[in-house]
Design a protein that fits this description.
Layout (H helix, E strand, L loop, with lengths): L1 H15 L13 H10 L3 E11 L4 E9 L8 E5 L12 E9 L5 E3 L6 E2 L24 H29 L2
Parallel strand pairs: 3-5
Antiparallel strand pairs: 1-2, 1-4, 2-3, 4-5, 4-6
């Protein structure tokens, strides 16, 4: 009886625990989400990530190129949602879309297009990855690797076109 009670308490605890889920809708097109991000972001710039704190989901970034008035050379502190991303997980240059919160920190747009210039394919909102191999598919490994390489090239190309478009929008 005591064992059953413990299991019941465990189940109730798990059920009552707040669940976190993302509601990232799949955009009609990459262009549609780019337009949405442009219209709904206070901060749009390319910056150099200089510090990452994964325990607090925070980072520091120095503005390198601004698309809506952020001061070039200024360093900002920011935060991201580790569950819904994008996740700032590597140093280097990033395209940032975000808004200032009440503590004047840049808050990366959840499910948005913020991504690394070095590895833009890591942002799933911006690119659709190739389907993974099924466990019993062995002869398709070369095909999968080719699709993955093409996906990385496409992600980089999409990012380059996006930056060109952002530069045109500010002129």
């Amino acid at each position: 009886m005591k064992h059953t009670l413990n299991i019941l308490l465990l189940i109730l605890t798990l059920i009552s625990t707040k669940a976190t889920a993302c509601n990232c809708t799949i955009p009609k097109s990459l262009k549609a989400i780019q337009d949405y991000e442009f219209e709904n972001s206070e901060c749009i710039f390319i910056g150099e990530i200089i510090k990452i704190d994964t325990e607090n989901n925070s980072f520091e970034i120095k503005v390198v190129e601004s698309f809506n008035g952020d001061e070039i050379g200024k360093t900002y502190s920011g935060i991201y949602d580790k569950y819904c991303g994008p996740i700032i997980d590597e140093k280097g240059k990033w395209l940032i879309y975000g808004n200032f919160n009440s503590e004047n920190l840049i808050e990366i747009n959840t499910c948005g297009l913020t991504r690394s210039l070095e590895n833009p394919e890591n942002n799933i909102s911006a690119t659709i990855p190739p389907e993974p191999l099924a466990p019993n598919e062995t002869g398709s490994k070369a095909k999968f690797e080719k699709q993955r390489a093409e996906w990385k090239i496409r992600a980089k190309s999409d990012l380059e076109k996006e930056i060109i478009d952002l530069r045109k929008r500010i002129k």
